[in-house]
Write a structure and sequence with these properties.
5 helices, EC 1.3.99.-, transmembrane, heme
Length: 137
């Protein structure tokens, strides 16, 4: 059971991160355009991507929480990994708020801000990888 959960978790994580990395790139382009057709096309892409990536994130979080429950004992480093997953959930919810701002034409941030915003999930990924590989504590 554990290996199947691990398999599913890795699959969901890879799929979720594809969306977490690409959605803010669409935001960069949305913040840069002043053409209505391009704006609407990018907004449609962002909306569809958000809907597509959400189930992958849910699957990643569920599998990530269930895996340690199938094992005897609960290693301390797993708490940090779950925390990283919750940070990523918060990031995705922040992405939803940004998507609503673009939909309502109330975005106030520049494309440069979104370029920095796009890098935030990298830190959560590095933290989680560190925990999984080195298993500190």
């Amino acid at each position: 059971m554990y290996l199947w959960l691990k398999f599913a978790h890795i699959f969901f994580i890879i799929s979720w991160f594809a969306g977490l990395f690409y959605l803010p790139r669409i935001y960069v382009n949305l913040a840069m355009t002043d053409q209505a057709d391009e704006y609407n096309r990018l907004l449609l892409m962002a909306t569809k991507l958000y809907k597509f990536m959400t189930p992958w994130g849910i699957g990643a979080l569920i599998c990530g929480i269930l895996m340690p429950l199938t094992q005897i004992g609960f290693p301390t480093w797993v708490h940090g990994k779950i925390f990283a997953g919750l940070l990523l959930l918060g990031y995705q919810l922040w992405c939803r708020k940004i998507l609503q701002d673009f939909t309502n034409h109330t975005n106030t941030k520049s494309h440069k801000w979104y370029r920095v915003f796009n890098e935030l999930p990298v830190f959560a990924l590095l933290f989680a990888l560190y925990l999984v590989i080195f298993k500190p504590f």
